Amino acid sequence: MHRYVLKRLVLMIPVLIGISIIIFSIISLTPGNPARLILGDRASQVAIDELNEELGYYDPLPVKYVNYMKDLLHGDLGNSYRTGASVVSEIAVRFPTTLLLSTFAILLTATISIPLGVYVAIKKNSMADNILTVLALIFTAMPSFWLGMILMLVFAVGLHLLPATGSESFAHFILPAFTIALLSIAQIMRMTRSSMLEALRQDYMRTARAKGVKENKIVWKHAIRNALLPVITTMGVNFGWALGGSVITETVFGMSGIGTLTLMSVRSKDVPLVMGCVLFMSLMFSVITLLVDLSYGAIDPRIKAQYGIKNKNHKALRRAKEDVSTQNS
């Protein structure tokens, strides 16, 4: 297990380097002048040229990228062109909002979608199954910005039950969290239904029924554990994307999260802030994916046993090598 974790952590490095090259090249080749953004429109051309020279704006693209990576290796992500604040502080201020929103949304998704998916799998081809499947298809095809505006019009403007924009209190997170969750619920419910139907058809399920095991125990103890692997994978990916910044949802509801920060920095061609946000989102997504993979061992004993067998084989091989070296000496 430790070897696997270490291997995955090492593989994150080339992935992050590749992402940094792509994003840095795109944002550097787009039109824009960082000195003009920092000094304003009233600054003289001489002052703009001096600041651009200091920032390395006129250097070749490979030189600019190498200089950026040198600073990154020393823990310096630079300062925002727009605000002058450090990129680390800008991300640290915005990330708690995105983290709370993503966590709330994924908890809603898990609480609602998995029981519904199990229920419609048990009630296959019933009226409830058909109705929930149609609703899931509708929500899956629904644009998130449109759903967010509809929820805002109904619950904020019409009924005055919840605030429409902002992120000052927990109430401000309810509508955007439901906007993210409703789209994920539809996807996860359908996936849970398919996985449960496949698990219920397995031979060991028929054997359990033949032994007289109660249906509830078959469903909730045996079938659900085997059906959850693809579900958890999808939920982990959705959580990683949400942590990376729900740009559309945060923009619709006027929330000060990572998604809104990334959008503003792209619009203003704030290169250090764009790079910092993208690398941070990529790192978070990679970490979430690793944690999802590690959770498989806790859910499926076969995977955990496989890791145990590999570790035993590695230990046995190492002991054999030590014995051979001892005999030779």
Rg calc: 26 Å
Helix content: over 70%
- Spatial shape: elongated
Total helical elements:
14
Number of strands: 0
- What gap, in angstroms, lies between the N and C termini? 32 Å
The level 1 CATH classification of the largest domain is Mainly Alpha
CATH level 4 superfamily of the largest domain: MetI-like
Give the DSSP E fraction (strand runs of 2 or more residues): under 5%
- Please name the CATH topology of the largest domain: MetI-like fold
Low-confidence stretches: none
Number of domains: 2
What is the compact description of this entry?
With 329 residues, the protein is mainly α. The protein has 14 helices and no strands.
3D structure, described in words:
With 329 residues, this protein is mostly helical. Helix content is 80%, strand content 0%. It has two domains: 62 residues, no CATH class; 221 residues, MetI-like (MetI-like fold, Orthogonal Bundle), CATH 1.10.3720.10. The chain is elongated, with a radius of gyration of 26 Å. The chain starts with a helix and ends with a helix. The model has no long low-confidence stretch (mean pLDDT 80).
Keywords:
14 helices, mainly alpha, MetI-like fold, 80% helix, 329 residues, 2 domains
Outline the secondary-structure elements.
Elements: H1 2-29, H2 34-39, H3 45-55, H4 61-73, H5 87-122, H6 127-140, H7 144-158, H8 174-200, H9 203-210, H10 215-245, H11 247-252, H12 258-267, H13 271-299, H14 301-328
Helix pairs in contact: 1-13, 5-6, 5-8, 5-10, 5-13, 6-8, 7-8, 8-10, 10-13, 12-13, 13-14
